[in-house]
Amino acid sequence: MDLEEFIKNEKEAKKLYYIYADNSYLRNKFKEKFIEKFVPEAVRDFNLSYVNPGDEYLKRLSNAVQTPPMGAEKRFIISHFTEDDSLNQSEQERQLKIFKNIDQSASLLFLTANKVDKRKKFYLSLKKIAEYQEFETPRYRDLDQWIIARFRENNKKIDSRSVKMLENMFSNKLEILNSEIEKVVTRYPDQEKISYYDLKNIISREKFLEDEEIFHFLDLIGDKKTDQALLTLKEMLNKGVYPLYLLTMLKNQIELLMQVKFYSQYTQDNYKIAKKIGKHPYPVKKSLQRCRNFTQKELEKILDEILRANYHFLTGYYPDQNTALEMIIIKSIAY
Question: Residues in domain DNA polymerase III delta subunit-like C-terminal (predicted)?
Answer without folding.
Answer: 212-331
